[in-house]
Amino acid sequence: MANAPLAAPPDGLQAVALTASLTTPDLQASLAWYHEVVGFAIDQRHEREGRLMAVSLRSGDVRILISQDNGDKGLDRAKGEGFSLMITTRQDIDPLAAAIKARGGTLEMEPATMPWGPRIFRLRDPDGFRLAISSP
What we know:
The mean pLDDT is about 90. This protein starts with 18 loop residues before the first strand and ends with a strand. A hairpin with a 5-residue loop joins β7 (about 120-125) and β8 (about 130-135). By secondary structure, the protein is an alpha/beta fold. The chain is built from two helices and eight strands, in the order βαββββαβββ.
């Protein structure tokens, strides 16, 4: 069967969590978007010499660390190309998407039911990182 899952090697990775770490040229703008628009909780603020350098965000078991880009690779470089965070929720997708839009968020794709079952919508953070939020 072509689509049958293949078992991992017996000594393969057995992960229990995944946390994304994203850099941003404007930490305050990114923090406002993730916290105030999308609704992530602020788990921890990371400061160095009194200056905010990163923020740990959480929503259920999902964790995202956003950190101030130091500019070593150029602050104007494209971020998030070919990359998408897939977040699953038990919430009803339509009111969640509507609430994000009411708080100033812009959807790249309105809620839709995919042919394989889940209902999903897509959005992009201020730095270009894509998020797809779905419910089974």
